Amino acid sequence: MQDNLTAKQSDYAVFLPAISGFYATFIGKQRVNNDYVDPARMPQALQNMEQFNWLNSQQALFPYRWSLYSGGHANLDLAKEDPSEDMVRKREPGTFMLGDSGGFQIAKGLWEGDWKANSGCPKAEKKRSSVLKWLDGIADYGMILDIPTWVIHDKKASKACGITTLEEAVAATKYNNHYFMQHRKGKKNGGARFLNVLQGDNHTSADEWYQEMKEFCDPNKYPDTHFDGWAMGGQNMCDIHLVLKRLVALRYDGLLQEGIHDWMHFLGTSKLEWALLLTDIQRAVRKYVNPNFTISFDCASPFLATANGQMYYQIDLTHDSKWSYKMKPAADDKRYATDTRSFKDAVEQDNIFDQFEDSPISKHLTIKDVCIYKPGDLNKNGKEGKTSWDSFSYALMMGHNVWMHIESVQRANRAYDAGERPAMLWNTNGDHAHFRDIVEAIFSAPDRESAEAIIEHYDRYWMDIVGTRGFKGKKTRNSNTMFNTLFETVEDDDNELSEDEAETIMQAHLEE
User: Fold this and answer.
1) Is the CB of residue 367 less than 8 Å from the CB of residue 43?
2) Are 309 and 327 a contacting pair, CB within 8 Å?
3) At 65, phi and psi to the nearest 5?
4) Domains of the chain, first to last
5) pTM over 0.85
6) Which residues is 99 bridged to in the sheet?
């Protein structure tokens, strides 16, 4: 029995699981090698890795048609066969893929080169070309190759990529934008649509960035090559005051046009409250501005949590409280290697979790399917490690966590539509208004001045809406705001932990 999450999506803002290359490898390589996962290792109640591939509508345990994949950890050479990439490259028709260009890799110094505008650096030029060709080849929408503004506050990052000031980050991004415009395949030729990334680490720098970049979405200036929507990075993705200001500006600048600017993506957004408020915004924009408008948001949390040994176990939607998906360390004990109890029974009976919610994957597992090594067993390196997990244990946990995250987002939206609400979306300052009613007022306002006045009227309330990176209150106005915690139980940040680093953590755990 499938849990068809595509059918349950309704008109909510769309969550995009940020696919892990580690996870995709298991699915792709199993297609060309039926023994990539030892048949004896596959849980008895499951058949093959395609059941874990949510982009396979026929075989997946939980079909879901939307995802994001980053060029930062992809094989960019589409001319060479690479089964580990098949989950993305050979995805089912009708699925949706947003390609992330990998600007994070530049800022981290993982893509070597001098990335300043007009540097002529051969390494940068080659990577820029490869990224564009890759996005045109695999993505429905792709993000332009931006230089994140946080790089200028990180001396190590600045040294690695050659970008030391906001002006240099803007100039380098504009250079990349022009390159993409000139060399993109084009929608009419089957290429990707592109999202113009907005950065900035406070209101002032975000406004400056927008003024510099908005022309790239202007169909009057670039009738054939203009970009096709927006991606919200930096302060734009986590400060609701700035988000609403920017949307009003886009509307009245003519840059939310139907059929032209139909998509907006929020990078690295994980809090459940934001899933709801983005749905509210999407519905208001569809009603008053562009009926085709869609908001998406991504995070890699299901995968990065697994890298840290964390497992989603419960969804908390208590009315007028904080809404969250809960996680904590999963079962990892060699005594379970011969234990045939169901996974749920074992973790509840042994008080690992006080209450565990099964996923379409975990309900087919015994505890020994995850805790595979017993005392004395040697791992693939010929050593007896400390952990009871092997690499496939991580894949099982990742699949479970992905379902839980999508289910959390959709269940929260259903509860919100039924009249429940998280505390964050109820304004207790003065007029006790629902967030959705304020958004309705902003977009139904008769003109720009009136819409902006409503936004400013609720200035104190915006301070209470915690950003997706832990931003709150006056911190959202500071020039050097960086990243805090995503979860109550996990100190983790999508922009501070790359997938390469996550896989290093997993490998170290397996080799201990």
Assistant:
1) no
2) no
3) -90, -5
4) 17-299 (3.20.20)
5) yes
6) 69, 142
Per-residue pLDDT of the chain (512 residues; tens, 9 = 90+): 899 999 999 999 999 999 999 999 999 999 999 889 999 999 998 989 999 999 999 999 999 999 999 999 899 999 999 999 999 999 999 999 999 998 888 888 889 889 999 899 999 999 999 999 999 999 999 999 999 888 888 888 888 888 999 999 999 999 999 999 999 999 999 999 999 999 998 999 999 999 999 999 999 999 999 999 999 999 999 999 999 999 999 999 999 999 999 999 999 999 999 999 999 999 999 999 999 999 999 999 999 999 999 999 999 999 999 999 999 999 999 999 999 999 999 999 999 999 999 999 999 999 999 999 999 998 888 888 899 999 999 999 999 999 999 999 999 999 999 999 999 999 987 788 999 999 999 999 999 999 999 999 999 999 999 875 433 333 333 322 222 333 333 323 333 455 665 666 666 666 66
Q: Which residues contact 198 (CB under 8 A, 6 or more apart)?
A: 206, 209, 210, 213, 230, 231, 232, 233, 234, 236, 246
The total of other beta-carbon atoms located within 10 Å of residue 445's CB is 17
Order of strands, sheet of 294-299, starting from the edge strand that comes earlier in the sequence: 14-17, 294-299, 263-266, 229-232, 193-198, 141-143, 96-100, 66-70
Q: Which residue has the tokens 């680093």?
A: 501
β partners of residue 510: none
Residue type for position 243:
V
Return the SS3 of 102: coil
Beta strand residue intervals within 238-386, DSSP E? 263-266, 294-299, 310-316, 324-329
In three-state form (DSSP H/G/I as H, E/B as E, the rest C), the secondary structure along 218-278 is CCCCCCCCCCCEEEECHHHHCCHHHHHHHHHHHHHCCCCCCCCCCEEEECCCCCHHHHHHH
User: CB–CB of 469/268 below 8 Å?
Assistant: yes
Residue 339 tokens, joined: 């234990």
Cα distances (angstroms) measured from residue 457 to each of 306, 430, 462, 471: 42, 11, 10, 20
Q: If we measure between CA atoms, which residue out of 123, 212, 198, 197 comes closest to residue 167? A: 212
Beta bridge partners of 315: 325
In 271-390, alpha helices (H): 272-288, 301-307, 343-349, 367-370
How far CA 24 is from CA of 20, 96, 310, 493, in Å, comes to 6, 16, 19, 21
Cα torsion 443, 449, 454, 455: sign: positive
Q: By the 8 A CB rule, do 420 and 217 touch?
A: no
In 177-281, DSSP assigns E strands to 193-198, 229-232, 263-266
Stretch (H or E) spanning 96: strand 96-100
